[in-house]
């Protein structure tokens, strides 16, 4: 009975997939020379990059805006606009709405689901020129910044004030706070600081009709009806353009330590997590997992410094544990206590551990973990599945996918080279990466809907933190009910009746 229900679910999903692929985008207009002339009335020429006259940008100059970080998604936009103020954003959006021109908001273009590049020739509205900190209150820790501020620049700004952004990710050198909010990025600190739904206190958003919705609250508490800003956190630019962000920065830890632990088998990860939580309690700030195969890719492609052979021997996977606290001696005592109890146990959960002894070693250990994304993309073309599944199933998901690919005869150097897993154990978020020689329809057909069905069978989520973008529009029904999708569509229609905001993303 169970099996037949599963098969009928598969058939239903396949039909949904076919319908979705043929679904048309809303009927929108292309930018023409008259539109460029209009934009020139209120934007300086340096803010208009276009292959249309009178501008003279070449298509290769537009290439970094039209192609995504993975070089998997390719747009054909003729025009990139780079406003400096919310007022300029408003004028652009109002005009595009009247003309029926699609707009793709773009931050640092580090997204991994094809959300930040056009599907056709929509205008790209790049936020990079809106990059000022508006205010910071060192007493409350509340930071108000333009959406185009780069995440790392905000960290550098806060450092002398002894605060940190409550969000950290490998793309910090390029991604923007507006992009982070729009994707509801999770990253490496979520275990400690929670999601942006909690730490973002207010937003300034330009709506599709050009209205500037100023909700840049600097209040921690504000129960005055519907909390509209939550709608834009994770909306991936489909409801409006985030132009300003108010966020609660966290006090900078006085002491941070990290250690990479080598585990003989994956089964030890969960008991280790339980033990780490128990012994480290309030100072545990990250618990990140990566398997042996992806570690080898990090080493091969020069991410961080390789661990010693004896530390790696016999390891099936690794865990990076970070502590952040207020007192060095106290924190070190706790971490050392954990390591000693792990090593001295009759049934040790770990083989060895590499403990950082200096700030530079601390960064080197993190560089291995943070460099996995880059290592994978240097190795080949990555099919990236960013999923929430029960922690106990992380390995099963990776192994099942690998066996499925093998059964299709695709596990070899000319097709799929690696099936690897890493992710944020503390958040139940696995990054299943299938690394291929090339992106091909055959590999994609082998993976989808297979992976989505696997996730659904665990009642998981097909997008833990990267979003839906263009990649998973057709797969939303694996994680959202028909009623939820219908209400999402109604909300979209209410804000954006002409469908100009990031068309073809998130919703069909
Ligand atoms: P973009 O890629 O430019 O855009 C992403 C989406 O947001 C698009 O749909 C775009 O239209 C929309 N958007 C951007 N700016 C705005 C705006 N101002 N208003 C409205 N919509 C907007 N993600 C994680 O969650 N956790 C990680 O740990 C993580 N690590 C990464 C590591 C690497 C090396 C890389 C390359 C990516 C990683 N990512 C991670 C994915 C990515 O960095 C995040 O999704 C990030 O938040 C995207 O920010 P961005 O400014 O580059 O946005
Ligand atoms: C990460 O955790 O490293 C990021 O989400 C990026 C990725 O999935 O590769
Ligand atoms: Zn991640």
Assembly level: single chain
Bound molecules: flavin-adenine dinucleotide, D-malate, zinc ion
The rounded distance between the terminal residues' Cα atoms is: 33 Å
Main beta-sheet strand count, sense and barrel state: 7 strands, antiparallel
Return the structural class: alpha+beta
Q: Which word captures the global form?
A: globular
Please report which band the strand proportion falls in: under 5%, 5-15%, 15-25%, 25-35%, 35-45% or over 45%.
15-25%
CATH class of the largest domain: Alpha Beta
Q: Count the helices. How many?
A: 19
Helical proportion, percent range: 25-40%
Radius of gyration: 23 Å
Round the mean pLDDT to the nearest integer and report it.
Answer: 94
Strand tally, please? Answer: 18
Number of domains: 4
Low-confidence stretches: 1-23
Here the CATH topology of the largest domain equals: Uridine Diphospho-n-acetylenolpyruvylglucosamine Reductase, domain 3
Cofactor: FAD
Catalytic activity: (R)-lactate + 2 Fe(III)-[cytochrome c] = 2 Fe(II)-[cytochrome c] + pyruvate + 2 H(+)
GO molecular function: D-lactate dehydrogenase (cytochrome) activity; FAD binding
Protein name: FAD-binding domain-containing protein
